[in-house]
TrEMBL record:
Native source species: Xylaria arbuscula
Name of protein: Triosephosphate isomerase
Subunit structure: Homodimer.
Any one Gene Ontology BP term: gluconeogenesis
Enzyme class: isomerase
Pfam families per UniProt: TIM
UniProt catalytic activity: D-glyceraldehyde 3-phosphate = dihydroxyacetone phosphate
Magnesium recorded as keyword: no
InterPro entries xref list: Aldolase_TIM (IPR013785), TIM_sf (IPR035990), TrioseP_Isoase_bac/euk (IPR022896), Triosephosphate_isomerase (IPR000652), Triosephosphate_isomerase_AS (IPR020861)
């Protein structure tokens, strides 16, 4: 199965009703490459607004969910509420949630299992810190994150992997095409060895970390880069150029 190129936009905790409406209207007006799956992740409070306003070709993602059915979990985001609202995706395991909110590999894996088993697809993030990269631990860190995921998840068809080196997120310091391709190839190799050849062939592996309209074309040419998870640039009109980087 050919892997459809995927571009996600992570708005993080940014925007307002008017600025997010403007972003969505720009995307609706733009000619987006039909060979690219586009999914945008606004803050939770704006999910319904975005789902109502965005054209149907554009997917919508939450930035987090909880791993339990509805109930006494004050402040959490329910997978069932997402489904009820026509939201088919969520980001999970973003490094900001891992580092600021203290989510462990196991917690992220449990959330991923719950979401995928209940009909919500997951952009599952992994990646190393600068300290870990400099210590030569990049591939080990990612293998450990993947192993925790594999211990809980059996259906990989609803998972897109986003490799996001923490040192490249929001810093303007993009990984080189060689650095990104090396890690993507090793993630695919890990999937071959630990899950299956077909999961390795079919799973999209996105790169995230200071992707812009200037660096996306080169990155998109790498064999194992199947798309991007974009933070800062997804709030700008140039997001359209990133979605269309293959044209
Ligand atoms: C992100 O938050 O997922 C991200 C990649 O951010 P940025 O593109 O701003 O580095």
């Amino acid at each position: 199965m050919a892997r459809k190129f995927f571009v996600g936009g992570n708005f993080k905790m940014n925007g307002s009703i008017s600025s997010i409406t403007e972003i969505v209207e720009n995307l609706n007006k733009a000619q987006l490459d039909p060979n690219v799956e586009t999914v945008i992740a606004p803050p939770a409070l704006y999910l319904l607004l975005v789902r109502e306003k965005a054209k149907k070709e554009i997917g919508v993602a939450a930035q987090n969910v909880y791993d339990k059915p509805n109930g006494a979990f004050t402040g959490e985001i329910s997978v069932q509420h997402l489904k009820d609202s026509g939201i088919d995706w969520t980001i999970l395991g973003h490094s900001e949630r891992r580092t600021i909110l203290g989510e462990s590999d196991e917690v992220v894996a449990a959330k991923t299992k719950y979401a995928t088993e209940n009909g919500v697809s997951v952009i599952w993030c992994c990646g190393e810190s600068l300290e870990q990269r400099e210590a030569g631990q990049t591939l080990d860190v990612i293998a450990k994150q993947l192993a925790a995921l594999k211990a809980k998840v059996s259906d990989w068809s609803k998972i897109v992997i986003a490799y996001e080196p923490i040192w490249a997120i929001g810093t303007g310091k993009v990984a080189t095409t060689e650095q990104a391709q090396e890690v993507h190839a090793s993630i695919r190799d890990w999937l071959v060895k630990n899950v299956s050849q077909s999961v390795a062939d079919d799973t999209r592996i996105l790169y995230g970390g200071s992707v812009s309209e200037k660096n996306c074309t080169e990155l998109s040419k790498q064999n194992d880069i199947d798309g991007f998870l974009v933070g800062g640039a997804s709030l700008k009109p140039a997001f359209v150029d990133i979605i269309n980087c293959k044209l």
